[in-house]
Specification:
The chain has 31 helices and two strands. The chain is an all-alpha fold. Strands 1-2 form a two-stranded antiparallel sheet. The longest helix is centred in the N-terminal third of the chain and has 27 residues. The two termini are about 50 Å apart.
Length: about 625
């Protein structure tokens, strides 16, 4: 609903309160004038907030009481009969303070513009016009920072053509002292406006926002922003830009309901800017040599790339380029050994000030588990996406990474090889198990790996024969064996079915957890002998063969020949029959394997009972029929 609101009152308020400070040459402020200006800006901000709350509570009556606006800048009375001229005047009076040398003045002026955006959004009118004015400011500031005198590029909009003769002419002089920090301030304003839109849940406002800002981003000459500004202003600019892009990708993805929306031009533009963002934020020769600052930018850029990878379809060329970027900017995280983080990281929580104070920044340069998880997750996602598109380069990159983590693993004795694979898989699970948002994503990714079933061993030395055409896939499929990972995953949860139940009913992890369990249960049915014969020590191959022989010797066993399908056998029946066979034959030499299998069995059966009970009471958040049918 549109509310009648006269912007002339706000226009007069801002002009009367701030006019003494808008004409200061070069925006130079003495201590006394800066203090007075901050007080005036604070008063204006509070008044805008009051107007917004009044407008939200009264949807019928006009809030403003003054129908005209007096412009003191020319010394004459000016009557604004339309909203757009008032909005132009409001923005032009406030935008000048974003070029101030005082960061406090910049911050308060930006807050007033964000509060004004809330007022405009609540009124239901002039949202497009207001956003367009801010976009013109961003373009003008960017072009002025680059010493450009040309006007913003034409975008085929009649409104823009009109603004080139009015808004542009009005706003350009106000930004004659703009700098890279001004561009950063405008990016912060757009991000805070987006925060407001997330709370409002108004699709129309969001759609206009992305259209306006997306068009603006396409007009900025990003290629020329590499070599400008002082280090401090570059840091502020890079931080605000990457924060804005992260928020935009998240919100744009939340609005996505089809492939066409997922390919929104603004996502494509941000994706094109990823290499530049990494250069601005992470290039050591640029400015980011401080450890804490470097880690922050790594966190934000990784978050941005992960969000983009889930919203866009990345073709092979982009995946290859991203792998190169990861190896260039996140090599320290990728090469850091998994499972050897050091005792300090076990003693203190990630981000603890005690941890930061104890580490020698230059000598150790130890990054948090949080960063390593995300770097490895994105690396594996790109590599496995290439593999699924039948690109050999994906498997090769993954194999090279494993060689760094497990050097010389293929050239050791067979028993030691399996032990190394199992230890690495356990460390891999431990790395991700405490971060729910990507835990099941990475587990699902690994289920898509092709499996190499054959192996050749040198009888004299007991080592694996290095077959060039097969060794890569052979090694990867052994390290990330899905049955082994499933067992290790359950073990890391201490076989607590309540944890699995929490994952299933969680809004954040429920879908991915159910998908992972469903696929793993299918694999368990197909590879029952491997599931029963699993050993944390890595000797499951021999145990699996013994288990197969025992099952085949029993006339009532569930064993099947390789040609006979096993998919139709329900998991609980397999579990129950496996228990009976364990009781019958004892397995005295493999007590650890029986214990592992028993704990996994009890966990899955308890989960089955809990899900069924909640579902019968209509307490389960969705229909678990498919999962129950497979599991039960």
């Amino acid at each position: 609903m549109q509310n009648r609101f006269d912007y002339s009152y706000l226009c007069c308020l801002i002009d009367d309160s701030l006019h003494p400070y808008t004409a200061l040459e070069g925006n130079f402020l003495t201590k006394e004038k800066e203090k007075a200006l901050l007080i005036a800006l604070s008063q204006v901000f509070r008044e805008v907030e009051v107007l917004k709350h009044k407008l939200a509570s009264d949807s019928e009556d006009t809030v403003a009481i003054a129908p005209t606006c007096y412009s003191n800048s020319s010394g004459t009375l000016t009557i604004h009969s339309e909203d757009h001229p008032c909005l132009e005047k409001i923005v032009s009076d406030l935008i000048v303070f974003l070029a101030s040398e005082s960061q406090y003045v910049q911050h308060l002026a930006g807050n007033i513009l964000v509060a004004t955006s809330k007022l405009v959004g609540t009124s239901g009118r002039n949202w497009n016009e207001f956003l367009h004015l801010l976009c013109v400011c961003l373009e003008v500031a960017a072009y002025h920072t680059l010493s450009y005198s040309s006007k913003p590029s034409k975008r085929g909009s009649e409104d823009l053509i009109r603004d080139l003769s009015s808004s542009f002419i009005l706003l350009r002089p106000r930004l004659k002292h703009s700098s890279l920090s001004t561009v950063a301030g405008l990016a912060r304003i757009f991000r805070n406006i987006l925060k407001y839109l997330k709370q409002e849940n108004d699709d129309q406002l969001v759609r206009v926002y992305f259209d306006c800002v997306g068009s603006c981003l396409n007009s900025i000459p990003w290629d020329l922003l590499n070599e400008i500004g002082q280090p401090v202003s570059k840091i502020v600019f890079s931080g605000n830009i990457v924060q804005l892009f992260c928020s935009m990708v998240e919100k744009c993805g939340a609005e996505a309901t089809s492939d066409s929306v997922n390919n929104h031009p603004i996502l494509l533009k941000i994706n094109d800017l990823v290499p530049k963002l990494l250069y601005w934020c992470l290039d050591k020769q640029n400015f980011c040599s401080e450890m804490c600052l470097s880690q922050y930018f790594k966190h934000k850029t990784l978050m941005l790339m992960i969000r983009l990878s889930s919203k866009l379809h990345l073709d092979s060329s982009i995946l290859v380029s991203w792998l190169l970027l990861l190896q260039k900017h996140f090599q320290d995280l990728l090469q850091q050994p998994i499972g050897e983080p050091g005792w300090l990281l076990n003693e203190f929580e990630d981000g603890s000030p005690f941890l930061a104070s104890l580490l020698d920044k230059e000598e150790h340069n130890i990054c948090s588990h949080h960063l390593q998880r995300r770097a490895i997750f994105l690396f594996m996602k790109c590599s496995l996406s290439l593999t699924s598109s039948r690109e050999e380069n994906g498997l090769l990159k993954l194999h090279e990474w494993l060689q760094c983590q497990l050097p010389g693993a293929l050239f050791v004795e067979q028993d030691l090889y399996w032990e190394n694979c199992m230890n690495f898989a356990l460390s891999f699970i431990q790395l991700f198990v405490h971060e729910d948002d990507i835990l099941f994503e990475v587990l699902l990714l690994l289920l898509n790996l092709p499996v190499h079933a054959d192996q050749q061993i040198c009888e004299e030395t007991g080592t694996f024969l290095p077959m060039e055409e097969d060794k890569i896939l052979f090694h990867i499929s052994n390290v990330f064996n899905p049955i082994h990972l499933f067992h290790l995953f359950l073990a890391e949860l201490h076989y607590d079915h309540q944890v699995l139940l929490d994952y299933l009913i969680s809004r954040d992890t429920g879908i991915n957890c159910a998908a992972y369990l469903l696929k793993c249960l299918r694999l368990v049915c197909k590879s029952w002998d491997l599931f029963v014969g699993f050993s944390p020590s890595g000797n499951s191959q021999e145990q699996s063969r013994k288990k197969i022989k025992i099952l085949q010797d029993d006339p009532n066993s569930l064993a099947r020949s390789p040609a006979a399908p096993v998919e139709r056998t329900p998991v609980p029946l397999l579990l129950e029959m496996g228990c009976k066979l364990d009781d019958k034959y004892g397995h005295k030499h493999h007590r650890t394997d029986v214990k592992t299998f028993e704990e996994a069995k009890d966990c899955l059966i308890s989960l089955k009972t809990s899900v069924e009970r909640l579902y019968k009471k209509n307490l389960f958040p969705y229909n678990p029929g498919v999962l129950l049918k497979r599991q039960m």
